[in-house]
Every structure is written in C-alpha cells, then in structure tokens.
Design a protein that fits this description.
Rossmann fold; ATP binding; globular; binds adenosine-5'-triphosphate; 9 strands; alpha/beta; six-stranded mixed sheet
C-alpha cells in the first residue's frame, strides 16, 4: 500500500479550484520530486498531505490514515522543511532543534542529545549555541533539516528547501539530504522549481499542471547518460506546459 495516496482529490478555495482530480501514490522509501509552473497546486498538495485542510472531494491517506481528521497522529510522523529556515531568532540552533521535538511530543530528556547528534550530523558541531543571525543561510537551513530529522519522521516534505541557496551550497546540502533520507529509510517528497534538482534528487518526478492535476509521472533512472537526461528534461517541460505532456 502506498504511504501517501491521493484518490480523485479536489480542493477548491471559495470559487477557485487549486487541485483537480489528483490521483497518485508514493511508496514507502521513495524520494519523489514534484514540479509544475507557479500556482499549479504544489503547496496545496503538500498542505493536504500535512492535514492542514481536508480535500473538497476524494481521499488523502498517509500511512493509511486521514491526515486532516487524525492531525495529532501525524505530528511526529511527517516533518516539513521550507524554503526559508523558519528559525526563532531569539533561540540558539540547539534550542530551535529542540522546539521541533517539543511539538512532536518527544520526551524532554531526549531533546538535548538528539539535537546535538543531528546538528553534528549536519556539520554544525560546535555551533549549537549560535543564534540564527550568526549563521549563514546554508547553516540555517542545516538547522532546519536537523529539526526535521530529529523527530525521526517517516515522511519528510521539502518545499523549495534548497532554492534560496547558491548552487554549490544547494548541491552539497541536497546530496546530504538524499543520503539521510535513504539511510533512514524515510519517504521524501520535494517541491522544486529547479529541473536540475528534480532530475538528480530522486527516483521519480510528479509533474503537476494547473489546476493541480497530474500531467506526468516519470521514473528517473539512477545514472542517466546525457541523452537520456535531455529526453527526461524535455518530457518534464512538456508535462508542465498546457499544450504538451504525456497525459
Ligand atoms: N488559501 C487559499 N485561498 C485561496 N486560494 C488559494 C489558497 N491557497 C492556494 N490558493 C490558490 O490555489 C492555486 C494553487 O496554489 P499553490 O500555492 O498550491 O500553487 P504552487 O504550485 O505551490 O505555487 P508556487 O510554485 O508559486 O508556490 C493558486 O492559484 C493559489 O492562488
């Protein structure tokens, strides 16, 4: 059974349809990119996975549960990393990581050790007591990743998490993220505007087309040669544009 499953999902806001007849499944342990033009419904899809609101029609299931109706059940199971690190400026790196565990309901006596461990794994040993303004953008995003991984979620959602960083920093962090997801046996779903990121990050690309409809579902081979990569790129772009795609 897929760990994330959308069946005939519709989501309307007042008179605006953000997601339309969206059906897909993501298996446990998959690392999937979600691409599509701005406003095509990517964040709405994420918010449905997070249970922030219910679908207007259809069903959303995460690990067999309804994320909206059983919101509390999900607190520890799904973590999100956003484009900006969203750290509390008056808290240290260590405290910011601990806050995630507090909201996830992890026993307090575990916070410090787990936070130190994850900060170290993300290359921030020795910077535990730094405040966000004392860290670079890349380091702040590392804290944000440590906060997400420290609750040991089953699913990690990334919403443009690497796009505010320079390409070199983003590449390094992306690689580390992929390793951590795979080592931990987690399921990862990553919204990205970068085709290069989508083509190198995971094993599958979901292409959304407005209004929130699945235009294509593309398997990415592990080590595509340049010609295959170019063909994949063209296919993703075709899926994103209204007149093209493999629907
Ligand atoms: N709470 C809301 N109320 C009304 N309309 C909304 C709401 N949230 C999203 N929308 C609309 O739904 C559509 C899809 O928005 P969404 O944020 O999911 O797109 P997106 O693909 O994530 O866009 P971007 O790539 O620019 O972040 C847009 O037209 C947006 O204006």
């Amino acid at each position: 059974m897929p760990v994330i499953e959308f069946t005939g999902v519709e989501k309307a806001f007042v008179d605006h349809r953000a997601v339309h007849d969206l059906t897909f499944g993501i298996e446990e342990g998959e690392l999937v990119s979600v691409v599509g033009v701005t406003g095509c419904g990517k964040s709405t899809t994420f918010n449905l996975i997070l249970g922030l609101f219910p679908p207007s029609e259809g069903t959303v299931r995460v690990a067999g549960h309804d994320p909206y109706a059983e919101f509390d059940w999900f607190r520890r199971r799904v973590a999100v990393v956003f484009q900006d690190a969203r750290l509390l400026p008056w808290r240290t790196a260590l405290q910011n990581v601990c806050i995630g565990m507090r909201f996830a309901g992890i026993p307090k006596d575990q916070w410090q050790d787990r936070a130190r461990d994850w900060l170290a794994r993300l290359g921030l040993a020795g910077r535990e007591n730094a405040y966000p303004h004392q860290l670079s953008g890349g380091q702040r995003q590392r804290v944000s990743l440590a906060r997400a991984f420290s609750v040991d979620p089953e699913i990690i959602l990334c919403d443009e998490s690497f796009s505010a960083l320079d390409e070199i920093t983003a590449q390094g962090l992306r690689r580390e993220f992929v390793d951590l997801v795979r080592e931990g046996g987690k399921t990862g779903v990553v919204i990205t505007h970068s085709l290069a990121e989508a083509l190198t990050l995971g094993s599958r690309i979901l292409v959304l087309r407005p209004p929130g409809h699945l235009a294509d579902d593309i398997a990415v081979p592990s080590d595509p040669d340049p010609a295959a990569l170019e063909a994949l790129r063209a296919r993703v772009l075709a899926g994103m544009t209204p007149e093209g795609g493999a629907e």
